[in-house]
Design a protein that fits this description.
Residues 1-22 have a biased composition (Basic residues). Residues 242-308 form the Signal transduction histidine kinase subgroup 3 dimerisation and phosphoacceptor domain. Residues 1-28, 390-414 are annotated as: Disordered. One of its GO terms (molecular function) is protein dimerization activity. The chain has 446 residues and is an alpha+beta fold. Among the domains are: 69-184, no CATH class; 316-446, Heat Shock Protein 90 (2-Layer Sandwich). Helix content is 69%, strand content 8%. The chain has helices at 2-67, 69-84, 88-91, 99-107, 117-134, 147-163, 166-183, 186-271, 277-305, 319-331, 348-368, 407-417, and strands at residues 336-341, 374-379, 383-390, 421-426, 432-439. It has a five-stranded mixed β-sheet with strand order 1-2-3-5-4, with helices on one face. β4 (421-426) and β5 (432-439) form a beta hairpin. α5 packs parallel to α7 (166-183) and α10 runs parallel beside α11. The longest helix has 86 residues, at 186-271. It is rod-shaped and about 130 Å long. Residues 1-24, 309-314 and 395-405 have low confidence and may be disordered.
Length: 446
């Protein structure tokens, strides 16, 4: 019996447990079903009818209304006139010939909604105060104005709250309240006075909303401008740091070695015995060329170190230096002949580009074709035309493996910077030809 009793109690417990679980399961499913039903009845319709439309109205709808506001006002006037005109006789005892004017007095003030809502309110209120004194209302509730015209008043109240000064907002409330108290039944007057205050308050709330949105947009724009300025300043700082580094490296490498060349060339006649006058003159020419190159390197380093490019105001090579360049190149051993035609003086930018093109062309000729004859033809006119031709070299070219190969692209870029053109390439006899055409008075090329 003990076992049976235990068994019965166990069965009873299991049975009670199952029944309890079953009841709770049925209750849970029922609650979930009720919740779904309530969701279908309340939450989903609210989302569809209120939340989603308000989100659309707050973003796309508002932008659409602002963009096409005038068209929408005219459309509303047309619709309201189409409603008010035929229904004048249903609300007031007015001759049929006066129906268009009667309807226009209540509807057309809406045209002032965007430009001058206070003036629109005045043009509505004055006829509204006179009409009930002249024409008797036939409305069941003794409402003295057409409903379509009254909707115009409510729209104007909101617009006054949005755009007009506080003094005009207060005057609008007092005038509207007096109008309601004078012409509406006592059972309706007080309520509509509060209603007018509510519509004006709605306009003031919308004004605050628009102002906050505008301030937020302006603040975001200012933040974006500050971020842009900070990025520009950071980029300038990085650029200045990079320019300073390049200038330092150039000074440590190029300027130092050029200074050593000058010192060695100038002291050679004192350090070496048996130096003839011709050799001494050659050393002096080398030192002079090195000094000029060193001065140009130092000017370039000054440009790199300066953020405002003030060293660019220093004298730049011009047409007066072209002849000096040709003579110094000939004195350096280049088999050089030249001819210069014309007397038109080019502008400073063109003169500097001309000098650099000649300098690079002569350097390339002496570097890659030593001993070759070089011919320079230069013409000044509406265009500065330069032609540098070199023949095949008779000596072994110098090792150019360390050259960066940027001479011709650099000349082309300089010519293009003033609106000119440059071409360079080999010719049939094994030589090389550089031709450039530069405007005498260049325009700035961005």
């Amino acid at each position: 019996m003990g076992r049976r009793g235990v068994g019965r109690r166990g069965i009873g417990r299991r049975g009670i447990g199952r029944r309890g679980v079953g009841r709770r399961g049925i209750g849970g499913r029922g609650a979930r079903g009720v919740g779904r039903t309530l969701s279908w009845v309340t939450v989903r319709p609210a989302n569809a009818l209120v939340v989603r439309p308000s989100r659309w109205l707050g973003s796309r709808g508002l932008a659409f209304v602002i963009r096409h506001g005038t068209v929408l006002v005219w459309l509303a006037v047309a619709i309201l006139m189409a409603i008010a005109w035929p229904t004048v006789g249903m609300t007031h005892q007015v001759p049929a010939s006066l129906w268009p004017m009667f309807a226009a007095l209540g509807i057309l003030p809406l045209l002032w909604l965007r430009v001058a809502p206070f003036l629109g309110w005045l043009t509505w209120v004055i006829p509204a105060a006179v009409i009930p004194l002249i024409f008797e209302s036939t409305s069941l509730h003794a409402f003295p104005w057409q409903i379509s015209a009254f909707l115009v008043l409510l729209a104007l109240l909101i617009a006054v709250g949005v755009t007009e000064t506080p003094a005009r907002v207060g005057l609008t409330f007092l005038g509207t309240g007096a109008l309601f108290l004078a012409h509406l039944p006592s059972s309706m007057a007080t309520g509509w006075v509060f209603g007018a205050a509510a519509f004006l308050g709605l306009g003031l709330l919308l004004r605050g909303l628009f102002r906050s949105r505008r301030e937020a947009a302006e603040q975001a724009q200012r933040a974006e401008e500050q971020t842009r300025r900070a990025e520009v300043e950071q980029a300038r700082a990085v650029l200045a740091e990079e320019r300073t580094r390049i200038a330092r490296d150039l000074h440590d490498v190029v300027a130092h070695r050029m200074s050593m060349v000058v010192v060695q060339a100038q002291s050679a006649q004192y350090r070496l015995g048996g130096v003839t006058p011709e050799v001494a003159a050659e050393f002096e020419s080398v030192a002079s060329q090195a000094r000029e190159a060193l001065n140009e390197v130092r000017a370039m380093l000054g440009v790199l170190r300066s953020e405002d490019h003030a060293p660019e105001q220093a004298p730049q090579p011009g047409t007066e230096d072209v002849l000096r360049l040709l003579r110094s190149s000939s004195a350096a051993g280049v088999d050089l002949t030249w001819s210069i035609v014309g007397e038109t003086e080019p502008g400073p930018a063109t003169a500097m580009v001309l000098y650099r093109v000649l300098q690079e062309s002569l350097a390339n000729a002496s570097r890659h074709a030593p001993g070759a004859p070089v011919r320079v033809e230069l013409g000044y006119g509406e265009q500065v035309v330069v032609r540098v031709s070199s023949g095949a070299g008779h000596a072994r070219p110098r090792d150019a493996s360390g050259s960066g190969g940027h001479g011709i692209p650099g000349m082309s870029a300089r010519a293009a910077s003033v609106g000119g053109t440059l071409s360079a390439g080999p010719v049939g006899d094994g030589g090389w030809l550089v031709e450039a055409s530069l405007p005498t008075r260049p325009t700035v090329v961005g």
